[in-house]
Amino acid sequence: MSTFTRRHFLGSMGALGAAGSVPGVLAATPGVSDTMAEEITGMETEAAGFANPLRLPGSSGLYGVLPASEFREVHVVRSTIEVLPGRRTPILAYAVESGGKTFLNPALLARRGDEMRVRLINDIDQPTVIHWHGLSVDSRNDGNGLNVVPPGGRMDYAFALRDRASMYWYHPHAHGYIPQQAYHGLASLLFVEDDEEAALRKELDLALGDSEIPLVLQDREFDAQGRLRYAPTAAQSFGGWVGDRLLVNLTERPFIQAGRRIVRFRILNGCNARSYRLAFVQGGRRLGFFLAGTDGGLLAQPLRIDQTFISPGQRLDVLVDLREADPGRPVTLASLAFDPMHAEGGHDMGHTSPATPAMAGMDHSQHGTAPAAASSAPMAMEGDARALMRIDVKPSAKYERRIPTVLSSLPAATASQNPPRRMQLGHNGQGNWTINGGVFDPKIAALSVRRGARETWLIENAERSMPHPMHLHGFPFRVIERLGSPALVRGLAGARGLLPQDQGVVDTVQVWPGESVRIAVDFAHPHAGDQDYVFHCHTLEHAEAGMMLRYTVKT
Ligand SMILES: [Cu+2]
Questions:
Q1: In whole angstroms, what is the distance from residue 143 CA to residue 286 CA?
Q2: Which of 12, 143, 403, 459 could share a disulfide with 423, CB 3.0–4.6 Å?
Q3: Distance of CA 45 from the midpoint of ligand 1 (Å)
Q4: Residues of 425-463 as b/e, b for ≥16 C-beta within 10 angstroms?
């Protein structure tokens, strides 16, 4: 494949009207600059009021960092934490006792090649199972929901971590319970490290929790008592549940302090249904930053960008050089305004229409064009311009590191010459999302592939649809081409319609309405015997509403 060069990308920014005139900093977009600058200034004003220190992984407690070798027994429990200041919020959590300390949703640290051996004990009154999102393991250890752990039951996992270094994550996958359990707190991170990863940390002098910061983006809704509210209507069960408060690491309206240096953010979209259009902004402008990695680890080379989408299930590894920022004021991590394309099927979805809360009660188009909401108006519809986090830039000790030009030995993606397997995304007019016209049946393998086959899949989303972040269990994959992308996506794309994150190894790809995305999957693995996995939309309500398919890898 031809490489996605910086020139290509800056060229596409040019198509959007961006002027990269200031060295190292992409200026705000002329043409739409007035609106964009106003929107950005509004978000900066919003972020100025953020007063809650970002929750960071510590040595115990929520998101406590735990070597995977000490992750031997995990209980699924009901617990409470303080999310909104002064309130206790009931949650579901992964609880671990280790070394005399209690961990909730521990952030696991492992080395590529390590063995994971953990017993899951289900202490709640619902079936559950852990899925290791992004890892290539055998069907049983994948935790794909074809087997679940009943209340009071247990399950022993044992598998090797064979995947590239990256930030993976783990979350529940018992069909019928996935959206509720994930929403109520069952999700955390798994860092896999290798030599390339260690080299980058050393080169940039990065330390987890200080200059390398995981950011779990989630949207939630709370009732007056501070309890999480999850009560989707039939329309929301179909369209997806979008919470009105934007949390980062379960912190609302957060801020952090960071040195004037290169800071690495490892970002997970842990929402049920919300996508973000991420940018770092300051002084009415987007700052340039580097995309260093995606779901499945480091890119071959860093890509300079100034915005990117992130959809449910996806991860981004970004490097921000805060020496490029104006030292006099904070930087804001924001989600820029965009059309979430929820109305595409609005007149075509039978009794379930309208499909989203936006369509159900609030006129999204009017809301979306309003100036960024003031701090007194916490409502955040998907696609609204909203601040996510304020970064206060403090003086740093002498720091003269540079972002390396090569990050990893990732080879260019190649597709087989065989005709693609088509995956058509749609809905049946009866409240179900479909793949190739079918609604998920866990008892039936809808397709089979040969172990070791190199396949091309063409994932085709209907014109009248919603965006679908499609997640493949069992095998990471590469994105080869995007066709028919909506204008907003096309504006960020380079050669063959590819977005910056399409340059990496991924396990989840967002397919927009009307889009066809060609992916290359290598179904090689070392597991003996037939193995069953699933392919599904990571908008969790869409998967529950049928957009999931069981497939078999045959030996
Ligand atoms: Cu979907």
A1: 40
A2: 459
A3: 33
A4: bbbeeebbbbbeebbbeeeebbeebebeebbbbbbbbbe
CA atoms in the 13 A half-sphere facing the CB of 410: 30
Cα 349 to averaged position of ligand 1 atoms, centre (Å)? 14
The segments of the chain whose pLDDT lies below 50 read 1-32, 345-378
Distance 344 CA to ligand 1 centre (A): 13
Distance from Cα 147 to the centre of ligand 1, integer Å:
23
What is the model's pLDDT at position 35? 78
Rounded distance from Cα 340 to ligand 1 centre (Å): 12
Look at residue 220 in the predicted model and tell me its pLDDT.
97
Ligand 1 centroid to residue 537 C-alpha, Å: 5
Ion ligand 1 — residues with CB < 5 Å: 468, 537, 539, 542
User: What CA–CA distance (Å, rounded) separates 5 from 304?
Assistant: 9
Ligand 1 geometric centre to CA of 85 (Å): 33
Candidates 2.60.40.420, 3.40.50.1000, 1.10.246.90, 2.60.120.10; CATH matching 19-48+204-394 = 2.60.40.420
Please state which CATH class domain 61-193 belongs to. Answer: mainly beta
Report pLDDT for 416: 84
Q: Is the pTM of this model over 0.85?
A: yes
pLDDT given for residue 342 in this prediction: 83
What's the CATH number for 421-554? 2.60.40.420
Per-residue pLDDT tens digits for 150-159: 999 999 999 9
Query: Contact, 310 vs 269, CB < 8 A?
Result: yes
Q: Which residue ranges make up each domain of the chain?
A: 19-48+204-394, 61-193, 421-554
Q: What pLDDT score does 343 carry?
A: 60
Degrees, nearest 5: CA angle 420-425-427: 155
Query: Which of 94, 190, 127, 74 shows the shortest CA–CA distance to 442?
Result: 127
Instruction: Give the Å distance between the CA of 539 and the centre of ligand 1.
Output: 5
Task: List pLDDT tens digits, range 90-119.
Answer: 999 999 999 999 999 999 999 999 999 999
> What is the distance in A from the centroid of ligand 1 to the CA of 475?
20
pLDDT, position 379: 64
Q: How far is the CA of 453 from the centre of ligand 1 (A)?
A: 27
Report CA-CA distances (Å) from 370 to 13, 367, 377, 384, 487: 25, 5, 12, 9, 22
Q: How many Å apart are CA 520 and CA 518, to the nearest integer?
A: 7
61-193: same fold as 19-48+204-394?
yes
Question: Of all helices (H) and strands (E), which one includes residue 308?
Answer: strand 308-310
